[in-house]
Specification:
The longest helix is centred in the first third of the chain and has 56 residues, at about 25-80. The protein is an alpha+beta fold. Strands 11, 12, 13, 14, 15, 16 and 17 form a 7-stranded mixed sheet that branches. Strands 2-1-10-3 form a 4-stranded antiparallel sheet. Strand 14 and strand 15 (about 555-560) form a beta hairpin. Helix 2 packs across helix 8, helix 4 crosses helix 5 and helix 12 (about 520-535) runs antiparallel to helix 14 (about 595-605). It has helices at about 10-15, 25-80, 85-95, 160-180, 205-210, 220-240, 280-300, 325-365, 380-430, 440-465, 480-495, 520-535, 585-590, 595-605, and strands at about 100-105, 110-115, 125-130, 185, 195, 250, 265, 270-275, 275, 305-315, 475, 500-505, 515-520, 545-550, 555-560, 610-615, 620-630. It is elongated.
Length: about 625
């Protein structure tokens, strides 16, 4: 009964109430609090117990990195006469260690820096880079005098000298192998080979006597020249120390770039100084001091100038080195409590914002269907997407309802007009006002055909909508299809003064033809509708062209005309039912408005697509894209 209908708004008073414990807001708050408590407690405990250990490990790594940086830069200084090309080395070290590395002169004039220009330096230098006076190089063979062993200078062997010494080293290695001693040959920075045993096994004196001919321990000409120059530099100092400046040097393994010892004078030489004998050991110490000073002067032109090394974390400052104190632990606990409070507050706000659109969706869904209520979209998260989907659903439902009403009205109008004409002619004929001649019967037959065409179109659309449209697929040659459609509409086109042309591209194959996998009857119906529509909207002397071409696994069919075209605002509606571009056209001149919808339905049934493009005043192009088929016999 009409009086028993539910009034709008009654649903809001009778909606189901959700228990408090099951509400999304409450459950989200409980879950968030539990997660926050557990995570904050675990984080605080881990911070208290592991931060100190992590910082100590970081200090150790930082110290190792600092040593490596200093060693690399000392090696660079030992092998280059200046700092001009050190920027690449600094960038590499900075990228690998994450440290800021800067080099300056003693008066803090910048030489190179891994930080941007203008970044202030740390307050103190971390080390001094001087390859002639270093005590931080930890590689085996570091010289006791403090000189980096990679400083070679004038003691670098020539290629010929290296070749000769390598041959001598191989001979000694071969000789020692006869006595069962495994050895390896390595090279010092100056290029001198060194024969060393592969294990800690002691070498017998007999083997050393047999294999040690002294050639490997004899200075090469380049080294002899450098040693002579060294002794000349040390002459003045030796004279002032009361020693003979011509004291011969023991070569041993004390050349720069070969080992960790400085060349020393023969300890058996004692010189009388000030009328008294000089002790042999004292003479050796004095000679060593003179030779070390002379050698630094000799090597100084071959190494980079002394530089101050500044290290920092990021762009400035040094790595933090501290142990967590009770005060810091209290700070961690306080921060954990603050995080917990903030988490609960934020969770409550987020949960409220989450539930608000859901409540709006629930209230909108409970409204009567004919109201088509929308909900505001206030977020872009999942709830916002759900609100947009709800609004789209309501809009589609409203649009479908309007289309349904318009469809019923259009169908009634399309059927009523021919029936009214038939009824009128039959009534005047029955009353004897008009004689039933051939012209009258032809008019009645034409109205019946119009009525039959509308009914057939509606039946095809209903079958396509219900999915019961039956297709009898078979390979169809495109060229024959276009010829058949053109032949069927040639008379109508000639009567309208419109030229009808066909063009079908060929492809490589047995017969060069393009084939379709389609129902030929339905496809001729679809193309026929397009040609009829094109001829109807093309003025005399215009052209309608049917073309076909292969496109990979598809075939593209086009019906193009040179008619009036379709406006941009009308183009999206051309495939809608009962739509006409010119509302003033009747069903006799403008069709029933079902031809193009049938084209789209038939194309969709074939697994293809239909689209239309148009330029007002130039014409329109309707394109069908359908699956291709292999030619019969191609396998």
């Amino acid at each position: 009964m009409i009086g028993a209908r539910t009034r709008p708004g009654r649903t809001s008073r009778t909606r189901t109430r959700i228990p408090l414990r099951k509400r999304l807001l409450v459950r989200l708050l409980i879950a968030s609090v539990l997660i926050a408590v557990c995570s904050v407690a675990a984080t605080a405990w881990l911070a208290v117990t592991t931060t100190t250990r992590a910082l100590r490990e970081e200090q150790a790594r930082s110290l190792a990195d600092d040593m490596d940086i200093l060693a690399r830069l000392s090696g660079y200084a030992a092998t280059h006469p200046d700092w001009k090309g050190v920027e690449a080395t600094l960038r590499d070290l900075s990228a690998r260690t994450g440290r800021r590395i800067a080099l300056t002169t003693a008066v803090r004039t910048p030489l190179a820096d891994s930080a941007p220009r203008g970044t202030p330096l740390p307050p103190r230098a971390a080390a001094t880079v001087d390859p002639l006076r270093t005590d931080t190089y930890s590689e085996p063979g570091a010289q006791l005098s403090g000189t980096d062993p990679r400083v070679v200078g004038p003691y670098r062997l020539t290629a010929i000298e290296r070749t000769k010494l390598d041959a001598v080293a191989r001979d000694r290695q071969k000789c020692l192998s006869h006595y069962g001693i495994d050895t390896t040959v390595t090279h010092t920075p100056s290029g001198r080979p060194v024969v060393a045993t592969t294990d800690s096994t002691a070498v017998s004196a007999y083997a050393l006597e047999e294999c040690g001919d002294g050639r490997l321990d004899t200075p090469a000409p380049t080294e002899e020249k450098a040693l002579t120059a060294l002794q000349g530099r040390a002459g003045g100092c030796l004279t002032r120390a009361g020693l003979d400046p011509d004291t011969p040097l023991l070569f041993g393994t004390g050349l720069p770039g070969t080992s960790g010892r400085t060349p020393t004078p023969a300890p058996t030489f004692v010189k009388v100084r000030g009328g008294r004998d000089v002790d042999g050991k004292e003479a050796v110490r004095a000679a060593q001091t003179c030779l070390e000073t002379a050698r630094r002067d000799q090597l100084d032109p071959y190494v980079a100038p002394v530089a101050e090394l500044f290290l920092g974390v990021g762009e400035s400052g040094a790595a933090p080195r501290w142990v967590m104190s009770p005060a810091n632990k209290a700070k961690v606990v306080g921060a954990a409590g603050l995080v917990l409070a903030v988490t609960v507050a934020v969770t409550a706000v987020v949960a409220t914002r989450l539930v608000r659109p859901l409540r709006a969706l629930t209230e909108a869904a409970q409204q009567p269907p004919d109201r088509h209520v929308r909900v505001p979209v206030t977020t872009r998260d999942e709830t916002g997407i759900l609100a947009e989907a709800f609004n789209d659903l309501a809009e589609r439902r409203e649009r479908l309802e309007a289309q349904r009403k318009a469809f019923v009205s259009d169908v009634a109008h399309e059927l009523r007009s021919p029936l009214t004409n038939i009824r009128g002619w039959l009534e005047v004929t029955r009353d004897g006002l008009v004689e039933p001649d051939t012209e009258l019967l032809g008019a009645l037959h034409e109205e019946a055909l119009i009525l039959q065409r509308v009914i057939d179109d509606l039946r095809d659309l209903a079958a396509a909508d219900a999915g019961t449209l039956r297709l009898h697929r078979e390979p169809v040659p495109v060229e024959d299809l276009l010829a058949q459609v053109a032949a069927a509409h040639r008379v109508a086109a000639d009567a309208a003064g419109v030229r009808l042309r066909t063009m079908a591209e060929t492809e490589t194959g047995k017969d060069g033809a393009v084939w379709l996998d389609a129902d030929p009857v339905r496809l001729r119906q679809a193309l026929g509708n397009l040609v009829t529509n094109a001829v109807r909207h093309t003025p005399p002397d215009g052209t309608v062209t049917l073309t076909a071409r292969g496109d990979g696994e598809h075939v593209v069919l086009e019906v193009a005309d040179t008619g009036t075209g379709i406006s941009a605002e009308d183009l999206p509606h051309v495939f809608e039912r009962f739509w006409r571009a010119e509302k003033s056209r009747s069903r006799r001149t403008g069709g029933s408005g079902l031809g193009l919808p049938i084209v789209r339905q038939l194309t969709d049934a074939h697994g293809g697509t239909a689209r239309a493009t148009s330029t007002p005043g130039e014409g329109s192009v309707f394109t069908l894209r359908l699956p291709a088929a292999k030619a019969p016999g191609d396998g």
